[in-house]
Design goal:
8 strands, about 180 residues, alpha+beta
């Protein structure tokens, strides 16, 4: 048994998920940077948990819930299956324990393995803010390819968003 894993999110995880998502380090790098209200979060969850094109997982590190992996736009199972993803970590809790970087590497590895080996995706896509150089470097390390940046309006500001993608055959293998 590994000391980290992904498991399906449950109603019991709702408060923790919202607290982590609202931590300033996570809001600063999110397309929607406003603070998520309890009502907004509950509405999102009631829609998400029964949607077959979505899957929300909790990342646990040494038994401690430490982040969220969100898969969405999952195409129906079959050849050429695609899906998108995003994740955020418990920035405060991991920093306190000095585990931010190892957790980041683990959650990305676990999420890619889940996308390709469990969900059966052929291609995994996502988005990153152009200014978020740290995440862009990490994405490259995991062999994600960047597309052309696009401007978007979100929460009263103009942001530049870069689409990213990783094909199953290009993924980094463990070991």
């Amino acid at each position: 048994m590994s000391d980290h894993m992904l498991r399906p999110a449950t109603d019991d995880d709702l408060d923790a998920m919202r607290a982590w998502r609202n931590q300033p380090p996570n809001r600063e790098v999110s397309i929607n940077s406003h603070e998520i209200t309890p009502d907004e979060h509950a509405a999102w969850w009631s829609k998400t948990r029964s949607d077959p094109s979505r899957q929300v997982l909790i990342y646990e590190r040494e038994g401690v819930p430490s982040g969220v992996v969100n898969f969405f736009d999952l195409a129906p199972a079959g050849p050429g299956r695609t899906g998108s993803w995003g994740f955020f970590l418990d920035a405060a809790g991991l920093a306190e324990r000095g585990e931010t970087l190892p957790a980041w590497l683990e959650v990305m590895r676990e999420a890619a393995d889940h996308a390709f080996d469990v969900l059966g995706l052929e291609e995994l896509t996502g988005e990153v803010l152009e200014e978020n150089m740290v995440v862009r470097q990490m994405n490259r390390r995991f062999r994600f390819v960047e597309g052309e940046p696009e401007s978007r309006e979100a929460d009263g500001r103009t942001i530049s968003v870069i689409p990213i993608s990783l094909k199953k055959e290009n993924r980094r293998r463990r070991g």
